[in-house]
Hints:
By secondary structure, this protein is mainly β. The protein has one helix and six strands; from the N terminus they run E-E-E-H-E-E-E. The protein has a five-stranded mixed β-barrel.
Amino acid sequence: MTIKGTVREWVYANPHCLLRLEVAGEGGGQPVQWIAEGQAPNVIFPVGYRKDSFKAGDQVTLTLEPVKNGRPMGRILEAVLADGKVLGAANSPAPTTIAEP
């Protein structure tokens, strides 16, 4: 799913990075507080995430894998910053398969 919102807090720390953002409610309803999760800084650094990637008040568009229970939470698959910069999936890379001889 894709959401667009205003950054409230970016926690760039172990064991998981967390992005809190406020997203407009459906049909102009009350804003919804979302939590988007990424892996540890050393895992997401290679795809562009930094301590200063998000600042309170920034507009961001996220593609998320939402949690199954319907709460406003999910795993970051992609982030598009206000300036158009795209950051990749904030999770561990898919395991590679090693061919057996």
